[in-house]
Write a structure and sequence with these properties.
The protein is α/β, with parallel strands linked by helices. It has 15 helices and five strands. Helix 4 (99-109) links the parallel strand 2 and strand 3 (119-123). Helix 10 (218-231) crosses helix 12 (257-275) and helix 14 runs antiparallel to helix 15.
Length: 335
């Protein structure tokens, strides 16, 4: 169990977008019709965990103003410092929430809250939850202990058991406007507008994903690969050495390798759009200077073939083929 990793002020007004979600929660408080369990469902990185913590703070604030947490009372200060004893956060261990985590939560909830009016248990990314863990949670969702609310978050509905969906009030979340994501990235990290716009487009309105791409510098590595693909000549010693080294580096990305291949795919899609005169829909704004050179180097048919190579590489990785070998074959094919 660990607290959410953010320093966003605890106020609904400080959360970007998600007006529908905030309105639904405000109305539930105003009408005193709080559900015993909520499901916050929508894309990753759009504020689900932040809103859950803010909502929990508001429910327990000693001096709320228009259902906003005051930010100054002892309860609010504990929420702000991620130290409130009655705000329990469970996130996946590795790839999934496991049954032992659910059992530990149920033991904790068997005791009354330490100090909260409403104790809140936040289970993140429940679309990763294994069936046995989900089944273990059902009874608690249906009849949670007194003074307890459970909030679940999920990136997609497909992996959630219908029995869980039926026991929760769903609160929908939506992608953020790309212009807003780009603006925030520019302010936070001092990015050039073209790079911020590229990150926002890549992340499809997910501020969290954009921050992740920035932190891991996948766009920088994508740019290095593309620069070499445009510079090198096939079947030369320089090409063999450089592409072999790039493949070894790419293989070390492990779980982020798929994200890198997706970034390379978007660049090739942009080239096809550019070659057909529809560059207004491009994603890789920061790489637009490469478009004329790349379109002179490869025809539309050759670009389509390279997209097929990327798709084949993703399928091979899904079958647990050797990542280094997959990347070597791919990069030499892209050249």
């Amino acid at each position: 169990m660990k607290p959410p990793q953010d320093n966003i002020p605890l106020c609904f007004a400080g959360i970007i977008g998600q007006d529908k979600a905030k309105k639904l929660l405000h109305r539930a408080v105003e009408q005193n019709r709080l559900a015993h369990a909520f499901l916050f469902k929508g894309p990753m990185g759009v504020g689900k965990k932040t809103l859950a913590r803010t909502f929990a703070a508001a429910l327990n604030c000693q001096n709320p103003e228009n259902h906003e947490p005051c930010g100054h009372c002892p309860s609010c200060r504990k929420f702000h410092s991620n130290n409130h004893p009655d705000f329990i956060v469970i996130e996946p261990e590795g790839a999934a929430i496991k049954i032992n985590q659910v059992r530990e939560l149920k033991k904790t909830l068997a005791f009354p809250p330490f100090e909260a009016t409403i104790r809140v248990a936040l289970l993140c990314d429940i679309h990763t939850m294994r069936r046995e863990a989900a089944n273990s949670l059902l009874k608690t969702l249906e009849e949670p202990p007194a003074q307890t609310m459970i909030i679940l978050t999920a990136d997609e509905a497909g992996g959630i058991l219908p029995t869980i969906l039926s026991r929760c009030q769903t609160v929908p979340f939506f992608p953020l406007p790309q212009a807003e994501v780009s603006k925030i990235l520019t302010q936070e990290a001092g990015l050039e507008p073209e790079l911020a716009a590229t990150l926002a487009a890549m992340a499809e309105g997910s501020l969290g994903r954009a921050r992740l791409l920035l932190a891991k510098d996948l766009l920088g590595f994508r740019k290095e690969i593309i620069g070499n693909l445009l510079r090198l000549e096939p079947n030369t010693p320089a090409a063999i050495q450089t592409l072999t080294e790039l493949a070894e580096t790419a293989a070390k990305l492990k779980e982020d390798l798929g994200e890198l291949l997706e970034l390379l795919s978007t660049w090739l899609h942009d080239l096809l759009l550019f070659s057909h005169g529809t560059a207004g829909s491009i994603i890789n704004h920061d790489l637009s200077p490469t478009f004329p050179t790349a379109c002179r180097r490869w025809s539309s048919q050759q670009l389509s073939k390279r997209l097929q190579l990327l798709d084949m590489a993703r399928k091979q990785l899904a079958r647990n083929c050797n990542p280094t070998a997959v990347c070597e074959v791919l990069f030499f094919g892209l050249l």
